[in-house]
TrEMBL record:
<keyword id="KW-0407">Ion channel</keyword>
<keyword id="KW-0812">Transmembrane</keyword>
<keyword id="KW-1003">Cell membrane</keyword>
<comment type="subunit">
    <text>Homopentamer.</text>
</comment>
<feature type="transmembrane region" description="Helical">
    <location>
        <begin position="21"/>
        <end position="46"/>
    </location>
</feature>
<dbReference type="InterPro" id="IPR037673">
    <property type="entry name" value="MSC/AndL"/>
</dbReference>
<comment type="similarity">
    <text>Belongs to the MscL family.</text>
</comment>
<keyword id="KW-0472">Membrane</keyword>
<dbReference type="InterPro" id="IPR001185">
    <property type="entry name" value="MS_channel"/>
</dbReference>
<keyword id="KW-0406">Ion transport</keyword>
<keyword id="KW-1133">Transmembrane helix</keyword>
<feature type="transmembrane region" description="Helical">
    <location>
        <begin position="66"/>
        <end position="90"/>
    </location>
</feature>
<dbReference type="Pfam" id="PF01741">
    <property type="entry name" value="MscL"/>
</dbReference>
<dbReference type="InterPro" id="IPR036019">
    <property type="entry name" value="MscL_channel"/>
</dbReference>
<comment type="function">
    <text>Channel that opens in response to stretch forces in the membrane lipid bilayer. May participate in the regulation of osmotic pressure changes within the cell.</text>
</comment>
<keyword id="KW-0813">Transport</keyword>
<protein>
    <recommendedName>
        <fullName>Large-conductance mechanosensitive channel</fullName>
    </recommendedName>
</protein>
């Protein structure tokens, strides 16, 4: 049981995923700083003279009824920037790498060859367990 867990942890996908999460978190901080420092002041230009920023006041005497549009625009810009960078920096190169260096033999296996591989794997598993199947 522990061997299977160790194999799972050392599998390349888990390590790649952990690195992607850390890099993604750091990149979110950079994009947030960009939108806070540059985009928000630009949006404030359109917000008028009050300190609430870009938005709509539903009831004139109640500040709690102010709908802020600026943070929604900022979040949308954050999302677009992060999605674009992840696509062009991570996804697109990985697609090209898989096409260039991928194992083409797996894609060209016939149905019979796949069934033969499955049969061989089952036979190896049966030899290891002494012919007993546990379900």
């Amino acid at each position: 049981m522990l061997k299977g867990f160790k194999d799972f942890l050392l599998r390349g996908n888990v390590v790649d995923l952990a690195v992607a999460v850390v890099i993604g978190t750091a990149f979110v901080a950079i994009v947030t700083a960009f939108t806070t420092g540059i985009v928000n002041p630009i949006l404030a230009v359109f917000g008028g003279d009050d300190e609430m920023g870009l938005g709509i006041q539903l009831i004139a005497d109640k500040p709690a009824t102010f709908i802020q549009i600026g943070p929604i625009i900022t979040a949308a810009i954050n999302f677009i920037i992060i999605a674009a960078v992840l696509y062009f920096v991570l996804v697109l190169p990985s697609i090209h790498a898989k096409k260039r260096y991928g194992n083409e033999e797996d894609e060209k296996l016939s149905d019979v060859e796949v069934l033969i591989q499955i049969r061989d794997l089952l036979a190896d598993g049966q030899r290891e367990t002494g012919g007993k199947h546990e379900f």
